[in-house]
């Protein structure tokens, strides 16, 4: 815990110094992105207005941002592979580098014509992920462009689709869960073949007669702090010049947004690691309740000591270490 406290210092400093140096970009995708692989299968066209990735039997393709970002609000419009996209995966994510990397993922798992895509999300902090939540969408993501957003501030990460929040990952450092906030991340995207697992768990394979498969991107917008040579663009100015454009910095879900989040979770969420109790069969916690959250409060009945947990965090006690009395959970968040 001590190391966690000290590692939060740089961010606090950053926030105190935050001025108006956020980079807001929209205009030309050439300014913000480099094609990173695919041997000509990825293209920025229409004077930088449109980026396309394609996949054929030989290769997929990908791009990455020129900038690294450390907190901000990042929007991109995507139009996914239409028709029979089974076996294909379009990934769009933020990631830092190194073995204890942080990552915030959107992955779109294709499907047969007329069958629903799965929007897969995951958050890694310090190299640990396994925090998957999956959704169906309430529209056809191949018919038109839709906006996929990541709000990333020191308190929370909010995933939104067309402005509707679908997932919130809160900063729970106070209870020992690492939160991504000290490692700058680049934006990456790629389109590749993953027919060993993507569609109905790998049952449906890519139909190469439909290739090339193409996904499109436009209207990138980052109200974000960029990171360069060890310094944030947000700390290089005086507080007096701060503008209102940093509202994302303290943004949280108001009650209307919380209702929409619950609507999505109730009607469109198809997997949530938080309530995947099977995954935790070897642990003694008695998980009661339900809902979309992860923060569990338990009481060790032998000591009356309270435990605050997030399911994945491996803070569950393996069965063989069970102490007399065990632990009974009292409450499940949300
Ligand atoms: C594809 O469609 C099937 C049948 O409706 C569904 O079970 C599955 O979740 C869909 N998505 C993926 C990516 O497999
Ligand atoms: C900033 O916010 C204040 C208070 O809400 C408002 O009066 C002012 O007009 C805003 N300035 C800009 C540039 O939007
Ligand atoms: C789990 O908790 C519920 C509610 O307190 C209780 O009814 C149930 O018996 C408990 N299950 C186990 C295996 O302890």
UniProtKB/TrEMBL annotation:
<feature type="signal peptide">
    <location>
        <begin position="1"/>
        <end position="26"/>
    </location>
</feature>
<feature type="glycosylation site" description="N-linked (GlcNAc...) asparagine">
    <location>
        <position position="111"/>
    </location>
</feature>
<dbReference type="Pfam" id="PF00722">
    <property type="entry name" value="Glyco_hydro_16"/>
</dbReference>
<dbReference type="InterPro" id="IPR000757">
    <property type="entry name" value="Beta-glucanase-like"/>
</dbReference>
<feature type="active site" description="Proton donor">
    <location>
        <position position="107"/>
    </location>
</feature>
<dbReference type="InterPro" id="IPR008263">
    <property type="entry name" value="GH16_AS"/>
</dbReference>
<keyword id="KW-0732">Signal</keyword>
<keyword id="KW-0378">Hydrolase</keyword>
<feature type="active site" description="Nucleophile">
    <location>
        <position position="103"/>
    </location>
</feature>
<dbReference type="Pfam" id="PF06955">
    <property type="entry name" value="XET_C"/>
</dbReference>
<dbReference type="GO" id="GO:0071555">
    <property type="term" value="P:cell wall organization"/>
</dbReference>
<dbReference type="GO" id="GO:0042546">
    <property type="term" value="P:cell wall biogenesis"/>
</dbReference>
<comment type="function">
    <text>Catalyzes xyloglucan endohydrolysis (XEH) and/or endotransglycosylation (XET). Cleaves and religates xyloglucan polymers, an essential constituent of the primary cell wall, and thereby participates in cell wall construction of growing tissues.</text>
</comment>
<dbReference type="InterPro" id="IPR044791">
    <property type="entry name" value="Beta-glucanase/XTH"/>
</dbReference>
<keyword id="KW-1015">Disulfide bond</keyword>
<keyword id="KW-0964">Secreted</keyword>
<keyword id="KW-0326">Glycosidase</keyword>
<protein>
    <recommendedName>
        <fullName>Xyloglucan endotransglucosylase/hydrolase</fullName>
        <ecNumber>2.4.1.207</ecNumber>
    </recommendedName>
</protein>
<feature type="domain" description="GH16">
    <location>
        <begin position="2"/>
        <end position="217"/>
    </location>
</feature>
<keyword id="KW-0325">Glycoprotein</keyword>
<dbReference type="InterPro" id="IPR013320">
    <property type="entry name" value="ConA-like_dom_sf"/>
</dbReference>
<dbReference type="GO" id="GO:0016762">
    <property type="term" value="F:xyloglucan:xyloglucosyl transferase activity"/>
</dbReference>
<dbReference type="GO" id="GO:0004553">
    <property type="term" value="F:hydrolase activity, hydrolyzing O-glycosyl compounds"/>
</dbReference>
<keyword id="KW-0808">Transferase</keyword>
<keyword id="KW-0134">Cell wall</keyword>
<keyword id="KW-0052">Apoplast</keyword>
<keyword id="KW-0961">Cell wall biogenesis/degradation</keyword>
<comment type="similarity">
    <text>Belongs to the glycosyl hydrolase 16 family.</text>
</comment>
<dbReference type="InterPro" id="IPR016455">
    <property type="entry name" value="XTH"/>
</dbReference>
<dbReference type="GO" id="GO:0048046">
    <property type="term" value="C:apoplast"/>
</dbReference>
<dbReference type="InterPro" id="IPR010713">
    <property type="entry name" value="XET_C"/>
</dbReference>
<dbReference type="GO" id="GO:0010411">
    <property type="term" value="P:xyloglucan metabolic process"/>
</dbReference>
């Amino acid at each position: 815990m001590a190391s966690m406290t000290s590692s939060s210092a740089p961010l606090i400093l950053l926030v105190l110094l935050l001025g108006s140096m956020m980079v807001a970009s929209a205009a030309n995708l050439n300014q913000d992105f480099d094609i990173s692989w695919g041997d000509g299968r990825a293209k920025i066209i229409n004077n930088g207005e449109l980026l396309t990735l394609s996949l054929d039997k030989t290769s997929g393709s990908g791009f990455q941002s020129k900038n690294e970002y450390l907190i901000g609000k990042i929007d991109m419009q995507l139009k996914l592979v239409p028709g029979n996209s089974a076996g294909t995966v379009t990934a769009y994510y933020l990631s830092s580098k190194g073995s204890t990397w942080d990552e915030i993922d959107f992955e779109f798992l294709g499907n047969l014509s007329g069958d629903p895509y799965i929007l897969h999300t995951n958050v890694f902090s310090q190299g640990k992920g396994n925090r998957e939540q999956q959704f169906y969408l309430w529209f056809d993501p191949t018919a038109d462009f839709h906006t996929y957003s990541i709000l990333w501030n020191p308190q929370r990460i909010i995933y939104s689709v067309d402005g509707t929040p679908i997932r919130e990952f809160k900063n729970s450092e106070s209870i020992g869960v690492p939160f991504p906030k000290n490692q700058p991340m680049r934006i990456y995207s790629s389109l590749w073949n993953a027919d060993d697992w993507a569609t109905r768990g790998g049952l449906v394979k890519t139909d190469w007669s439909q290739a090339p498969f193409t996904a499109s991107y436009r209207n990138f917008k980052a109200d974000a702090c960029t990171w360069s040579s060890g310094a944030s663009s947000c700390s290089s100015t005086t507080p007096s010049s701060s503008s209102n454009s940093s509202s994302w910095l303290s943004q949280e879900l108001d009650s209307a947004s919380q209702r929409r989040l619950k609507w999505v979770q109730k009607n469109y969420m198809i997997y949530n690691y938080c309530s995947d109790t099977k995954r935790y069969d070897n642990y003694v916690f008695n998980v009661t309740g339900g809902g979309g959250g992860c923060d569990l409060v338990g009481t060790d009945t032998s000591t009356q000591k309270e435990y605050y947990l997030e399911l994945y965090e491996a803070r569950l006690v393996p069965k063989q270490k069970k102490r007399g009395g065990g632990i009974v959970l009292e409450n499940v968040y949300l």
